[in-house]
Amino acid sequence: MKILLMCEPRTGSNNLASWFSLHKDINVLIEPITNPKSISMPFKKEAKYLIVKETFNKNTLLYEYVNEFDKVIILFREDFKNQFESWLNAKKTNNWDKQYIFNAKSNLKDELFFKSLKDLFKENFLNEKYFNISYEELYYKNGINKIKEYLNLDFLNIDNWPVGIKYRINKTEKKLL
Question: pTM of the entire structure?
Answer without folding.
Answer: 0.89
